[in-house]
Design a protein that fits this description.
The protein has 268 residues and is α/β, with parallel strands linked by helices. Helix content is 51%, strand content 10%. It binds ligand PTJ. The site of ligand PTJ has 25 residues, from helix 2 and helix 4.
Length: 268
């Protein structure tokens, strides 16, 4: 069993440890799948390499994503265990300001997890959560996993779907069905990142609050302006910019070798 720890305020990686604790707590309460802890580790590794900050290409992707969410007719935010654990409050706020529906969609689906995730979302203000129980009885035949089970009032009829922390095959299927998919994924090389219409390569805990700020700025713009922002966004080029950033950052670090200010023995 995992021990709960008190995170020291002065620990150099306090925020990262806090986020881990949040995931562990939500794993214990049945919200996060055990594989969700592994997925988080993968995300952390990419975040470390990206410098744990929102990059310019990510900002550009968030702006384009905000534009397509604001012009969507049936937008849906798909929520899995990790997204609920890390960003439930922001997801609910984003759904309110964009009128997007919230739908639980799980790779490791069980009715206990559906209910646990619904509860987490309701605790922070969600009034309607789709994709739970019988409501998730529609099927996307192109998807092999449990993710094929969707809500006929949600993802099935959506024109835009926001998928934070996906696992690949569903994004490809949704795009093939003619839907626009916005992915939030720290790994620019993942299948989700590669197949999405707009890929935000950023940590969900940073990306959604920025998303909300940008929606706030764009919501008064006319439809034409929003459509222009969306249509001039190039996902392939933006992903390339992120990969180039990683490349340049690693080259700089490689030149330095030791880059943290480690004290000399006599200074200790
Ligand atoms: O809750 P369930 O049952 O739907 O399962 C959810 C997981 C995440 C276990 C499932 O979707 C899965 O196995 O996902 P993958 O294939 O491990 O992909 C998760 C992706 O999210 C990886 O590319 C990670 O780099 C990325 N990721 C992890 N943490 C974050 C993240 N992206 C953004 N923000 C994060 N905090």
């Amino acid at each position: 069993m995992t021990e709960e720890i008190k995170i020291p305020q002065k620990h150099p990686r306090t925020e990262s440890l806090r986020i881990r604790e949040r995931l562990i707590k939500n794993f214990k309460s049945g919200v996060v799948a055990s594989a969700g802890l592994i997925a988080h580790g993968r995300g952390e590794a990419f975040d470390y390499i990206l410098g744990e900050k929102t990059t310019q290409p990510a900002l550009k992707a968030i702006e384009a994503a905000a534009a397509i969410l604001l012009t969507a007719e049936h937008p849906v935010i798909s929520v899995n265990g990790n997204a609920a654990a890390l960003a439930s409050k922001d997801i609910v706020e984003l759904s309110k300001i964009t009128k997007a529906k919230i739908e639980v969609n799980l790779f490791y689906r069980s009715s206990e997890r559906e209910i646990a995730i619904k509860r987490v979302l309701e605790e922070v203000g969600a009034t309607k959560v789709l994709g739970v129980g019988e409501a998730a009885s529609a099927r996307i035949s192109e998807v092999g996993s449990e993710r094929r089970r969707v809500d006929s009032k949600g993802i099935l009829i959506a024109d835009v779907v926001l998928v934070p922390l996906e696992d690949g095959d569903r994004t490809e299927a949704l795009v093939r069905m003619g839907k626009k998919v916005i992915a939030i994924d720290l790994n620019p090389l993942s299948r989700t990142a590669q197949f999405a219409t707009i890929t935000i390569v950023d940590n969900i805990v940073r990306a959604i609050p920025i998303f909300i700020e940008i929606i706030d700025k764009l919501k008064t713009k006319d439809k034409k302006k929003l459509e222009h922002i969306a249509s001039t966004f190039d996902n392939k080029r933006t992903l390339g910019e992120v990969i180039d950033l990683i490349h340049r950052r690693l080259s700089e670090l490689a030149e330095k070798g030791v880059y943290l200010p480690i004290l000399e023995v006599e200074e200790l």
